[in-house]
Amino acid sequence: MIRMIDEAAAYLRAAKGARRAILSLSAGLVGMLALPPLDLWPFLVPAFTVLVWLLDGALCGRSASSGRRMRAGAGVLFMFGLGWFGASVWWVGEAFLVDAERFLWLMLPAVIAMTLTLALFWALAGAVAGLLWPCGRGRQLFVLAAALALTEILRGHFLGGFPWNLPAHALNGMPLLLQAGRFAGIYGLGFLVVAWSALPALLADVRGSRGDRLRTAAIVLFTLLAALAFGAWRLLEPSAGTVVAVRVVQPNVDQREKWNPANREFIFRRLLALTGQAGHQGFQPRVIIWPESAVPFLLDENPQALEMIANVLKPGQVLLTGAIRRAAPSGPDARRLYNSLLAIDDRGRIMGRYDKRRLVPFGEYLPLAMVLEPLGIRRLVSLPGGFLEGQDESPMKLPGLPSAGGLICYEAIFPQLVTGGGNTADWLVNVTNDAWFGRSSGPWQHLAAARLTAIVTGRPLVRAANTGISAVIDEKGRILKHLPLLREAVIDSHLMVATARPFASLPSDGTIFFLSLLVLFLAGKVVPNRRDARE
Q1: Which residues contact residue 278 at a Cβ distance below 8 angstroms, ignoring those fewer than 6 apart?
Q2: CA dist 22 to 204, 294, 338, 510, Å?
Q3: Contact (Cβ atoms closer than 8 angstroms) between residue 72 and residue 16
Q4: What is 465-487 written as a DSSP string?
Q5: Is position 301 annotated as part of the catalytic site?
Q6: Segments making up each domain of the chain, as ranges
Q7: What SS3 state is found at 396?
Q8: Secondary structure element (H or E) that encloses residue 29, with its range
Q9: CA 519 distance to own-chain centroid
Q10: pLDDT at 63 over 60
């Protein structure tokens, strides 16, 4: 067995040029199998083990300038990223088919551009790894993991951020290890995932200190065992708190039909019918949740619609619904819109709201608009005046209920929106409209990211999606109930909402601070030894 590992490592380290590029691309494709909806997490191990050996071959064994090492490392990680992202974010193209007459020509360029852009972030990680790579030393696992974690932090914030399909999301099929995200955050968990997955690379007989490799393996194994123990303890720990009865409405409205004026009344009445239907065994929901922009009109400006909602709600019930609303009733901001979450009581009064703070690039706003608009590139959602970003991060205070934190659409992939600033939400409400992406893997990946956000923040999350996948998720990421894609139905569930959350402050800025210190430490330890490792 060890001989086979040595031979495989030698073959991969000897690869050059096109063969190395193809092998790196293939490793990325293999690693992608761990992402939703497949969730084949064991494939992470060969993917990142091969990646370490390819980097060894590209960066070690010959004297080279720092610039050449950075370019070689960037090339290996770029091809790995092409495989990882190219096969996992293709579903973005589905959105261009909703209005194919206007946007079909953009479909292929958009998918290619997104894949290349995401892979470039990993190329940057490769350049950093190339600069610091400790040839023949076990610390190479930490260098690779830290370089990827830091560039993923950058990807999660650049131009609003798009932290989609992070290494941490590849553990979706391994709930025990996912629990480590509670104290490590999404980027710290990603650091651990890479280190754990690449551990077999240390088994190969490479030039360097055997003792150094054994020490590194011991550290990595310790963190793995500690994470498994913590996960087991957390999943066995009983939940306690306030029980909230919720109904999640999934109306299953096709995106091509939603904004047709002829369908407005039909869609609204479908939502009302699902809201008022009798619950199983007398279930009485306290909170009803509709998805993002549930009704195709300005709900807060329609007294008749609010009255109809009041007639359906029973005393004490609250409706939380996604809705589009004007920034101002008149004046220059009357054409500007917010993508909002509204709280409506049993008298039809709007008692609270949350405005979306992270708009979707190219969907709700156009980055670099001055450059791209002259090229004919436009937003997919073309509403007069466009959307404004919300500024208030305060949770919604609902009478007699724990405070609810709104997450609209892909805001669910940003845990820092919940843990940062003055947000003290006790539970999370994610309203979304994934109808843009049909039966593709996109809705599954979105659900997995929302699930990890529940774990990282320590808060239960209720997800209402127009066409699915709607779900009720506890604070440990367990999916209590869910609805499949493209089904019109409701979820009735009791949700335990706890107000005491250990590790409450760690997942946001604490993660970035931890990783920054770690990389500074590695830089100080690795750079002085780099020359010795090549001799």
Answers
A1: none
A2: 22, 45, 46, 38
A3: no
A4: ESSS--EEE-TTS-EEEE--TT-
A5: no
A6: 2-236+509-534, 242-497
A7: strand
A8: helix 17-32
A9: 24
A10: yes
List the one residue out of 441, 389, 443 whose CA is nearest residue 417: 389
Task: Give the strand pairing for 287-289 and 318-326.
Answer: parallel
Assess contact for 191 and 467: CB atoms under 8 A.
Answer: no
Residue range 422-434: mean pLDDT, rounded? 89
Residues 175-205 have pLDDT tens digits of: 999 999 988 889 989 999 999 999 999 988 6
Cα(435)–Cα(493) distance, integer angstroms: 24
> Which has the closest alpha carbon to 96: 84, 85, 111, 113?
111
pLDDT of 505 over the 80 cut: no
User: Side chain identity at 359, as an amino acid letter?
Assistant: L
CB count in 10 Å sphere of residue 400 = 9
Is residue 292 among the annotated active site residues? yes
**What would the two tokens of residue 489 be?**
């139905």
Q: Mention the CATH class of domain 242-497.
A: alpha beta
Residue 439's contacts (CB-CB under 8 Å, 6 or more residues apart) are: 485, 486
- Band (371; pLDDT cuts 50, 70, 90): low
As a whole number of angstroms, the distance between CA 490 and CA 276 comes to 11
CA nearest to 470, candidates 453, 455, 490: 490
Phi then psi for 116, rounded to 5 degrees? -65, -40
pLDDT tens per residue, range 247-265: 999 999 999 899 899 999 9
Residues 345 and 357: their CA atoms lie apart, in Å, by: 24
Active-site residue, selected from the candidate residues 94, 152, 292, 364: 292
Q: How far apart are CA 88 and CA 90, in angstroms?
A: 6
Q: Which of 94, 364, 393, 409 is catalytic?
A: 409
Q: What is the pLDDT of residue 365?
A: 67
* Whole-number Å distance between alpha carbons of 288 and 296: 18
- DSSP-derived letter for residue 361 is B
pLDDT, greater one: 421 or 115: 115
Q: Are 485 and 468 in contact (CB under 8 A)?
A: yes
Could you confirm whether 409 is annotated as catalytic? Answer: yes
Within 10 angstroms of residue 200's Cβ, the number of other Cβ atoms is 18
Identify the CA nearest to 417 among candidates 392, 380, 434, 384. 392
Phi-psi region of 506 (alpha: psi -120 to 50; beta: other; left: phi over 0): alpha
Q: How many CB atoms lie within 10 A of CB 316?
A: 12
- Asked if residues 367 and 395 have their Cβ atoms less than 8 Å apart, the reply is no
Question: Residue 520 has which token pair?
Answer: 């500074």
Answer whether 0.85 is exceeded by the pTM: yes
The one catalytic residue in 94, 356, 364, 411 is 356
Query: Which single residue is written with the structure tokens 């199983």?
Result: 280
